[in-house]
Amino acid sequence: MRTTVGIIGAGPAGLLLARLLHNAGIDSVVLESRDRAYVERRQRAGILEQGTADVLRVAGAGERMDREGLRHDGIELRFDRTRHRVDFPGLTGGRSVMVYAQTEVCKDLIALQLREGGPLLFEAEALAVEDAGTDTPRIRFRHEGREDVLECSYVVGCDGFWGVARKAIPAGLTQVFERTYPFGWLGILADVPPSHDELVYARHDRGFALLSMRSPAVSRLYLQVPDGTDPAAWADEEIWDELERRFETADDWYLQRGPITQKSVTPMRSFVHEPMRHGRLFLAGDAAHIVPPTGAKGLNLAAGDVVTFARALVHRQETGSPELLDAYSQTCLRRVWQAERFSYDMTTLLHRAPGATPFEDRLQLARLERIASSRAAETDLAEAYTGFPFG
Fold this sequence. Notes:
Number of strands: 19
Strand content: 25-35%
Structural class: alpha+beta
Number of helices: 12
Distance between the termini: 32 Å
Shape: globular
Helix content: 25-40%
Radius of gyration: 21 Å
Largest sheet: 8 strands, mixed
Oligomer: single chain
């Protein structure tokens, strides 16, 4: 098999890239190790920045998002039993975010790719990227019980942290920056309408809590728990009781309870791999960087990466200049590090570290009070949350 761009991974990054390339008249092949049903049901991010939502619209994948997604014009911060709303459009010149689950983004992009795009091979396991430093990289993969080779002009690894793409970059050329956190998120899906119409980020002495949603009828909520927590160790009523404590306010707001349909624990880490390019191999999304979920940046960073690559390749096709492709890593990393900074700031602002001292607790409250009382501080949060420019 031969194609211009070989894409490893049919998550939102790989699928969006395939769509952008198709619209630009550039052929691609997408290899995905899992089956279609798995890709369309794996729960991940649910917040789309303004720029990500706009790109999906331009790509022709925004119709259902605009019909079924939930536009949010702000978030609520809770601390010391008080509530403070951050008004995104008023602070950013009109920007907002969209609540639309990654599963739905993938369903939309898969349908478009199968109907209009190039080959999308499910249960096609990439085994290795070979000759990445040359003009003729190849992906060795297994599909339908036999090994095959996909010859490419370019390879884009959208295959996550455990994928094969990053391993093709010589270790002597790389730097890795990472941080692990001593806590995780116990997340639940519940068949109950959300108890607030926007996301609520709560800082409490017992730990962080987040109120989110997947639809007007399904709530998504999270609790800070110690690293390594078994979700099965928490009974449903214990979860609701703890959420109630951490979301407590001085007014008459209350948390609606309902049947819990799913429980999981998400570990928290920050990770950046530099560079994001070697020869004609380009890394995108979790293959190159991971952020703690507090800032809602993971999917959006991945979208920024593939938009940057697609623009650079179109520029090469139209002008013959490799300038933008050569600058891919540097261009992406500027945005990546700003997202890492914001995600770290949000995490340390809202989570109580094990063994935190009264001094550290008061510093957290002082930081939150600063955001609530300073338009400049509030604007910095709103601009970062709604998204940094793509490329």
